[in-house]
Write a structure and sequence with these properties.
alpha/beta, binds calcium ion, Arylsulfatase, C-terminal domain, four-stranded antiparallel beta sheet, 16% strand, 525 residues
């Protein structure tokens, strides 16, 4: 009973599913994931339908298109970003594998050459391409170490930055994506750049979210042969906003900023865990402006999809790679922590006729996304053995069969390991691991020499803003139970903490207690 401690759900949803020829066809898939878009930056959480679902207030954001989309979608309240940092998330998203297996253990830049997506890793786009899909990628990739392969200046990085963060991805590393309009990472929202399928650079000098939506609409319209019209398509759209910078009108559209300009901190910061004395505090107005910018452009994409008559047979997903703390918990670091603001992400899936609108508390980890998407597309037989997550599509689909659902989610935080004489990082320091159940969040941090450094332990039911860390040594039964869950997850993931026997006394003492009936409510709330 050490691993895969999970719950078998009964058959859900007995309603007949109407099957016409359109719905029998392989569905198109559009996967939209702005960077650093936190789960509370969706206005609908404060509406009556969602009362009591999450326990915290929505940010004071204007998100009418996302609110409407949620009303047509499966809304997950317990989706997490397993390693809430750009590159590790993207590696897991694409491969369904944990960072140590897919190669992306740290945020990619030229000083961390070891952290890069393995060229031989099987990505979701490799599988969909083989299954007859036409795959396209638009926006930020940030899953590879930069190489000296600038198409306009061979033998050099794409810029002279040190370290270099941005990257060009050549065709042989695109993993089945045959339409390409992307870059590595670059944070100037109104002056973005991209390399296209042929490796030609584009500098459109406009708001990146608008520009990328225009490109996505071109892809949908297909007037210039952007895609193979005889195939279903898979399009990933990776906006950079509302990621930083968020310090001036250079970073967002003024029409969006005007919605927040006159709000004071008591209106902008509705979370009681926010410290508005931090110098970061003015950022909220610009951050929320970009949330609204993303909302507007996402709405434009959905409208086009409908106008083209593609909406009925297209799965549309909206999520993010991780959240943003925005002054909560007194930290300047927006991500890479287990706090709800960083670790939990929005996740909405719209699939007309196959998935009904509801809120669902099934826990979705980043490694589950690839197998679940393949399952939604009816390609469960093509889920590669290398994928380490679960196919949760039966839970989400109307005619879902019995299915294993997770009882907890794993959390991973790695920092730079040893630096070599070449000044480059050659390993990881696995600073923290943690678990989240439907009620508790626990993070354990170690020192560089492997000793226990800190335990964060939150009761998310009674303390949804995680203002009070429960003393673990005064609650041995709770702590032991959570350590047991964590130990099971680490073993399941063959994590470095498991392989190297980090904190052996603590893990051994915890043992593997009998499972607590974690899981979702039958009514899906
Ligand atoms: Ca990111």
């Amino acid at each position: 009973m050490k691993i895969n401690r999970s719950i078998i759900l009964p058959l859900t949803g007995m309603a007949a599913v109407s099957c016409n020829s359109a719905e029998d066809a392989m569905p198109n898939i559009i996967y939209v994931f702005p960077d650093q878009f936190r789960i509370s930056s969706l206005a609908f959480w404060d509406s009556p339908e969602y009362e009591g679902v999450v326990g915290w207030k929505a940010d004071p954001v204007h998100t009418p298109n996302l609110d409407g989309f949620a009303g047509e979608s499966l809304v997950l309240s317990s989706a997490v970003s397993t390693c809430p940092l750009s590159s590790p998330h993207r590696g897991m998203l694409l491969t369904g594998m944990y960072p140590e297996r897919n190669g992306v253990t740290l945020n990619c830049n030229s000083l961390r050459p070891a952290s890069t997506l393995r060229p031989d890793a099987t990505c979701i786009s490799d599988v969909l391409d083989a299954a007859g899909y036409f795959c396209g990628y638009i926006g930020k990739l940030h899953a590879e170490t930069p190489m000296k392969n600038n198409p306009d200046n061979p033998g050099h990085y794409v810029s002279d930055s040190n370290p270099e963060w941005d990257a060009y991805t050549p065709p042989e590393r695109r993993h089945g994506f045959r339409y390409w309009y992307s870059y590595g990472t670059f944070d100037v929202h109104k002056n973005p750049h991209y390399w296209d399928t042929e490796g030609v650079r584009h500098d459109p000098h406009e708001y990146s979210v608008k520009h990328e939506t225009d490109k996505a609409i071109e892809f949908l319209r297909n007037r210039n042969g952007e895609r193979d019209a005889d195939k279903p398509f898979f399009l990933m759209l990776a906006y950079n906003p509302p990621h930083s910078p968020y310090g001036s009108l250079d970073d967002c559209m003024e029409e969006d900023y005007s919605l927040y300009r006159d709000l004071d901190y008591s209106e902008l910061y509705v979370r009681p865990n926010a410290d508005t004395t931090l110098s970061k505090a003015p950022a909220a107005r610009y951050y929320f402006a970009n949330v609204t910018g993303v909302d507007r452009e996402f709405g434009r994409l959905l409208a086009e999809l409908k106008d083209l008559g593609l909406d009925r047979n297209t799965i549309v997903i909206f999520t993010s790679d991780h959240g943003e703390t925005m002054c909560s918990h007194g930290t300047y670091d927006p991500k890479n922590s287990i706090y709800t603001e960083s670790y939990c992400v929005p996740y909405m899936i719209r699939y007309p006729g196959r998935i009904r609108h509801r809120v669902d508390s099934t826990m979705l980890s980043t490694t589950d996304i690839m197998p679940t998407l393949l399952g939604l597309a009816g390609l469960e037989d093509m889920i590669p053995d290398s994928a380490e997550g679960l196919d949760l599509s039966p839970v989400f689909l109307e005619n879902g069969r019995e299915c294993i659902v997770p009882d907890a989610t794993l959390y991973i935080r790695n920092l730079d390991g040893e630096t070599g004489t070449d000044g480059k990082v050659h390993g990881i320091f696995p600073e923290a691991r943690g678990v989240k159940t439907d009620r508790y969040t626990m993070e354990i941090t170690i020192t560089r020499d492997g000793q226990l450094s800190r335990v964060l332990l939150f009761d998310d039911w009674n303390d949804p803003y995680q203002m009070y860390s429960i003393p673990y040594d005064e609650n041995p039964e709770l702590f032991s139970g959570l350590c047991g869950l964590l130990a099971g997850k680490l073993e399941e993931a063959d994590d470095i903490w498991y392989r190297k026997g980090i904190l052996p006394d603590l893990m051994e003492q915890a043992g593997f207690p009998a499972p607590v009936p974690y899981g979702r409510n039958d009514n899906g709330q």
